[in-house]
Structure formats: C-alpha cells, structure tokens
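Quick one, T. Sequence first:
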Amino acid sequence: MKNVKELVEKYLFIAVMVCMLVAVVSLLFTLKHINDYNAAVSDIFDGNKDLISKMSEIERLRDEYGIYGEPDEATSEYYALNGYMAGFNDKYARYSDKAETSTSISNDAGEGIGMGVSVVYEQDGLYVADVYAGSAAYNAGVHIGDLITSVNGVKYNASDNSEFNSELRGNLGDIIKVELTRDGDVKNLDLELANFTINPVSSDTSDKTVAYVKISDFNELTDDEFSKQMTELKKQGYSKYILDLRNNHGGLYDSVVNMIDFVCPKGLITRVEYGNGEVSEEYSDAKEFNGDIVILVNGETASASELFSQSLKDFGKAYIIGTNTYGKGTVLQTFMLNDGTSVTLSTGRYLSHWLVNVDGAGVQVDEIVELSDDKLATLYKLDKAADEQYLAAYNYIINK
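Structure tokens:
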C-alpha cells in the first residue's frame, strides 16, 4: 500500500508540474502577443502622430477663433475617413455612414421606402425618370416625365435644393404633399410614404416584331426578373430583342453572372483576379437563350453592365450599338464595420469570356451611334422615334 501511495503522489506531482509549465508557456506566449500588439499600435501611432498633432492644432484654432460654435462631429468623421481613403489610389474606395449603408443594402435587395420614383435633377425641378409598380406614386398615377416643382410647400431651387430634398425623405406612413406639372397642367397629390419594390427590368411589347427590354440596375431581383420576362417574351412569339443598358451603372456580381449563364452556352463567364492573389472563375452550363439580341450602351454603362455586354459579345450572342462604355472592370466589395457603417474597396479585376478586361477602355461597340447632349440628358423620357441609337438597333435587328 505504501508503494502504491508513493506512486500516486509521484504521478500527481508530475501532473502538477506539467500544468504549471503549460501555464508559464501560455503566459509567455500571451505576453509576446501583447508586446507585438503594443508595438503595432505604437507603429501606427508613430506613423500618424503628425496627423493627430495637426488635427489637435486645428481643433484648438477652431475653439479659440471660430465663430460658428460646436462642429458637427459626424460630418467631420465622414469627410476625414473618406479623405483618408482618397490616398488609397482606388478611385472607387469610399466610406459610407449608417444611412448610406442602410440605403445601399435596401437598394441591393430591391427595396425602398418613399413615394416610389427615381428622379433626375434639372434646372426647373425634379423630373420623374421611373415609377415603381405598386408604389404610392404609381397608384396616384404619376408618369415618367412629370415635373415635381414643390414638396410640402417647399419650392424647388436648383442652386440649393437641400431643404427640398429633406422634404422628400421621411418615415413609413408619412404623408407628403407633392405639386407636379404634366403638359402644362398642375396636379397636387397627397402621397403616403410606403414600402415599394425596385424592379430594374421592364419590357415594352408595343412593337409586335421586336421586344424592347430596359435593364436599369443589377440588384437581387434582376436575374430572376430578366429570365422570367425573356422567357415570357419568347412564349409570346418574339425572337428579336433590344436590351437597353444605357445609364446602367452596374450592381451585384452574382446577379449579372446568373444573367450571362441564362443567355450564353457552356463556357467561361468570367475570371476574377483578386488583389490577395486568389483567382476565381464562373462557368455557364450548356443551356442557352436563343434569339437575335442587340444591346444598347453609352458612356454611363458601367461595371456589371459592361461585364454582361462584353460577355454576350464574346460568346457571339449580341451585337452592340451606341458609344463605348465607361470602363470599370473592377470588382467592388463592401465590408461592414462594427457600428453599422461600411467601407467599399476595389478587391479584384474581372475578365470576360475571352479574357477581356474593360477597365479604362470600356466595351468597344460594334456600331457607333451617338446622341446629342440634350438627348442624353433626357434619355429617360426620350421618345423612341427620336432616339437614333434605338432606331439603329431596330433597323439592324429587323433586317437580320
């Protein structure tokens, strides 16, 4: 029994010593990381101490000599962070506050709160560029091309529209009083701000031979809406399509990849080369959409809409008319910060089916057709009979 007891005590002593050794090693390891962290923080501070010193000096001067009272700290933070990111050599890098981040998330989801229109600012007021189905404006009979001149009694002022803009914003259920004109007639509407869906795909079947499809954005709804509407148009007997991507600034990568997959046969859709060295590739399956397609583009066609246009061109699925596009061949990624704000960075470059990168060059159209500056500015309400780009597309596809 004595030997057993001594053996137990011996092993117990060894176990205690091992635990103590592990604890000491863990402590040393932790201290090393703390020292590394402190060193890193010190490096950051040392690298920015001149900036911090300047900011302190500016704050002192404002407090001593300024006449406009306390500053808006949120505005200072917003411009300071965007100013910092201006040095990234990334022209698309930006910091977004909580409101901008929330709006961006809603737009990507195809959701909004408001009267349910998109507008274009001009000298004499806000022109309605689109009316979303099911929204308050849609139900009240607001039309594309209507001119909004007053909201809640506040008249539009082209030189300073901040007060006017603030009246357009509100909360769910708020009532706003809108004055608009149409063909010289003044209309006064009471519109309740409500949820609405931003459907970025619309079809026009007024011509019985050529279907016109406008794609204004690539959000979470675009790919499904596009495939549904194109399938329905084919069921109606259409085989010729004009896809209008003019003034489409892009949107979600997954959405445009799905649309290219819907139209194109089996093959590489895009190759993305990321800044961290990683590479990803997306491929389409063997199913494809058959029909004659012309794509309309201009200098405001950018990003995802350029990938769509270039890919269909590479696959031989579309003829492109208009003017060369914007030239944004980068993948943007938005990172959420802990406080509900966000930063957006260019994290990669995409290449099309034939490994074409449009960054800085744009999509080279098959046929150059220009519009006057006046027509470009009012494209949202331009009649097709006066739209030389549309007419060129129609004449090409009707004779194909």
